[in-house]
Design goal:
836 residues; mainly alpha; four-stranded antiparallel beta sheet; 76% helix
Length: 836
């Protein structure tokens, strides 16, 4: 029976080794996996070494620790793999990754298939195994380990896009490679002939099925999250349960890729969770998963490395030749994708161009790691393969991992430097210099005030601040010598504004002043502003701001359901979302004005911040106009939202005050907890329910033309009229159409667009009667200027209404005659203009 104490003491010892290797690797400027690999090889090779030296009797107990480790591929896959995959997905900025979706999908999925095929076909003539086994090896070595590469990229200051490409590739690459590995292994296990079409079909079904299941599971968890009331421990526990539950259900019950399912669930939470989980809780969640993945990644690597000597124990010169073929084929397949297929995507505008330097770095940075060793170990334990095939896969996969780790991993830093990818872009250099100049100036002022307060010698002050002042002078000279165009500087400032807007959005989530859906939209808008400014400067920022004010697809769908099926509930919800979105956006823009004047003003010159302020002011006017259009129709609802915002803000300030008093030691722990409990019960105030206000009787009261009718007449008219809601810029009547109804404006404004002029009509007025009375086609377009609530009277009902209500008929005829007179004057004027 397995001694649990033995297992725990071994894991404890390995954790100590991992903890020591991390700072040691940083000191030696080596990727941590390289050092862990060395330690693992040493521990795994220790029994053979002591036996060779004749010390086996003295060290038998120590050797048995490593010979008897209860390590199998099943433990790696079911214990460690869900942790690694889930952390990779939840740590990914999905929106940023979508910018390079085309190249990432190419590198991850298409490249995995190509790499598997190239490696398999290259080894088949020399391997003395079947083609399907060679392809299996190709899928095993197609998995990449980005941890070491990304660490080096960050240490050397490599471009963010390069890091994003490698992260995105590794994220989907492992999922694709494992799904393909499972298909090929099943094909060998059932002794089927190699059928490429059938294999690809199984691969895509497993991949897509796992992705859909994972996405649904992630959304299900997000629906449950609000029930735990911002309890960070409960939220973290649920995500851990999700990772393991999704993996096992996908693999054992649904027979789809468990890795893909876990990845999809994590990416769903990453994309949508920031609006549903409080910012502090999200930071805690990310840190927890980072720690879990670090332990899992380190243990899996060191445990797998311990097994390497056993896997490579009987290798010979022929294995080295096969390894050379494998290395050449793997790098050739990677080059084929980057230098042949990638330019095709660039040509059809599916991705921004990727420089050759980036491509070389991606090729050399394709390290293989623990996951490749785990899959190789799984092959050695699979009875469906004979011993020769098991050895073929295990030896070559392990040798390839060692080559990429000790050759690519140790030289990647040098390759990045040679390619010039360690230098900041001109934009980032300017931003760094400006920010440091401001920070150093503030430090110098702080030192002066501190010295004055404590009565320190002026000479000491000058000695301390002299390096800061020298750097500021040098930065100003650099800035003057290599001055970026104002357009570039403006783009930098606008990117900073967009990033600050994202920070402010997350603060609104913490204050609970906006719904989760609204926060999600605001985050997307902030990201769009950043990317627009980064890509096209001022024009891109303004286009993103305009798109943020447009009606989203969900609103259009709701409006379609209302117009064609009379369903109001969905439209009311979307209108409530829009009011809240506009209100919070306006509040954010108000805070951006202060940020622009105080923070950006300190970093950039006055002329630049004057331009950014003008851009923000324009946004404020546009958002304010859109909000006022709704405020005029629904003043009570907007006021209720504003009151809710103020109450939530007051509670937030109250909570902050109690926390400050506790941290200052003015109130004890029990009193602080009591005060906090009192506030927590009142924080989650629901959003008021939105009513469109299409009650026919209430709308009739707004029409002066019907004010003379008695109750009985009004009741008859109410049965004839049909309420209708319109949005700004909606075309209500199209010129040339047959007249079939007259429209009364209960609230809002429309514009009648005649050939010679435009006429605005407001509440209490009507339009559309001319075509009914004359029998001619519509003579003008009528477009809603604001949100409108109309009452529609069909042609037959209009005629009955006129017959039954002579006073209303007389008023309508008077208005019609006036309009005809004006139209006649316009016609005469146009005729005189033509004759002249």
């Amino acid at each position: 029976m397995l001694d649990i104490a033995f297992v725990l003491i071994v894991i404890t010892a390995l954790l100590v080794v991992v903890g020591v290797c991390q700072p040691l690797a940083a000191y030696l400027k080596l990727p941590p996996p390289v050092l862990l690999g060395v330690v693992g090889l040493a521990l795994g090779g220790f029994p053979a070494l002591v036996t060779h030296l004749g010390w086996s009797r003295e060290t038998d107990a120590f050797s048995e620790v490593f010979l008897d480790l209860p390590v199998s591929s099943g433990i790696f896959i079911y214990v460690f793999l869900p942790l690694l995959v889930f952390e990779a997905g939840i740590a990914t900025d999905v929106r940023r990754m979508l910018e390079d979706a085309a190249p990432i999908l190419l590198l991850a999925i298409v490249a995995t298939l190509i790499s598997t095929a190239v490696v398999g076909l290259a080894l088949w003539p020399f391997g003395r195994v079947s083609l399907v086994v060679c392809l299996l090896l190709g899928s095993v070595v197609s998995t990449t380990d980005p941890a070491a590469v990304i660490a080096i990229f960050r240490d050397t200051g490599a471009p963010a896009r390069l890091t994003r490409l490698v992260e995105g590739e590794a994220l989907l690459n492992d999922a694709a490679a494992i799904a393909l590995f499972a298909v090929l292994l099943a094909m060998i296990g059932t002794a089927r002939e190699l059928d490429i079409g059938s294999g690809l079909r199984e691969f895509f079904m497993s991949f897509v099925g796992g992705g859909l299941f994972g996405m649904l599971a992630g959304r299900a968890l997000l629906a449950v999250i609000p029930m735990v009331r911002d309890d960070r421990l409960a939220e973290a526990t649920l995500t851990l349960a999700l990772a393991y539950g999704v993996f096992i259900v996908a693999e054992r019950l649904l027979h789809v890729s468990g890795v893909v399912a876990v990845l999809a669930s994590a990416m769903t939470i990453s994309a949508l969770g920031r609006s549903r989980i409080a910012p502090y809780n999200w930071s805690f969640l990310a840190d927890l998963w980072d720690q879990l993945a670090f332990w899992a990644r380190s243990l899996i690597f060191i445990l797998a490395s311990i097994l390497v000597p056993r896997l490579l124990g009987d290798s010979d010169i022929r294995d080295l030749l096969l390894l050379a073929v494998l290395i050449a084929a793997a790098f050739a397949a990677r080059a084929l994708v980057l230098f042949v297929l990638m330019p095709l995507l660039e040509r059809v505008k599916l991705t921004q161009p990727i420089s050759s330097a980036y491509k070389y770095a991606i090729i050399w940075g394709g390290l293989r790691g623990a996951l490749t060793l785990v899959l190789a170990l799984g092959v050695t334990e699979n009875a469906a393969l004979d011993q020769h095939a098991q050895r073929f896969v295990a030896v070559l996969a392990t040798g390839f991992v060692m080559f990429t780790l000790f050759v690519n991993g140790t030289t990647l830093r040098l390759v990045i430097a040679v390619l010039g990818l360690h230098r900041l872009s001109p934009r980032n250099l300017v931003l760094r210099d400006r920010i440091l100049a401001v920070a150093y100036a503030e430090v110098a002022d702080s030192v002066r005030h501190m010295a004055q307060y404590h009565g320190l010698a002026p000479r000491s002050v000058e000695q301390v601040i002299e390096p800061y002042q020298s750097w500021i002078t040098a930065a100003d000279a650099r800035d003057e010598a290599e001055r970026l165009p104002e357009r570039e500087r403006l783009a930098i400032a606008l990117v900073a504004l967009g990033n600050q807007e994202r920070v402010l959005v997350l603060e609104t989530r913490a204050d609970q002043v906006a719904s989760q859906a609204t926060v999600q939209v605001l985050l997307g808008n902030a990201d769009a502003l950043v990317e627009g400014a980064r890509a096209e400067g001022r024009l891109g920022y303004q286009r993103a701001a305009e798109r943020a004010l447009s009606f989203p697809p969900a609103f259009r769908i709701a409006y379609f359901l209302y117009r064609h099926f009379g369903i109001q509930r969905f439209l009311a919800d979307r209108l409530a979302d829009r009011v809240e979105l506009l209100l919070v956006t306006r509040l954010l823009i108000e805070r951006l004005v202060s940020f622009n004047d105080e923070r950006l003003g300190a970093v950039f010159q006055d002329r630049l911040t004057a331009i950014t302020r003008e851009i923000i002011e324009h946004r404020r006017e546009e958002v304010g106009g859109a909000l006022d259009a709704l405020r005029r129709q629904y003043p009570d609802y907007v006021a209720a939202l504003e009151e809710r915002f103020l109450r939530q803000s007051a509670l937030r300030q109250e909570m902050g005050r109690y926390q400050a008093l506790y941290e200052e030691g003015l109130i004890p722990q029990e009193l602080y907890d009591d005060l906090k409990r009192g506030i927590s019960g009142t924080r989650a105030e629901p959003r008021p329910r939105f009513e469109i206000g299409l009650d026919t009787h209430r709308l009739i009261e707004r029409l002066d033309i019907l004010s003379g009718l008695d109750e009985q007449q009004l009741e008859r008219v109410a049965r004839l009229l049909r309420p209708r809601f319109t949005v700004p810029n909606e075309r209500i009547i199209r010129r040339g159409d047959r007249g079939d109804a007259v429209f009364f404006i209960a609230s809002g404004a429309v514009e009648v667009r005649l050939p010679a002029r435009r006429v605005r009509l407001g509440s209490g007025e009507f339009f559309g009667e001319m075509a009914l009375l004359s029998g001619q086609p519509r003579q003008a377009d009528v477009v809603a200027l604001t949100y409108c609530r109309l009452l529609v009277l069909r042609k037959a009902d209009f005629e009955r209404f006129l017959a039954a209500n002579p006073e209303a008929k007389a008023e309508i005829n008077r208005i019609v005659e006036a309009r005809l007179s004006v139209n006649q004057e316009d016609g005469d004027r146009a005729a005189r203009t033509v004759s002249n």
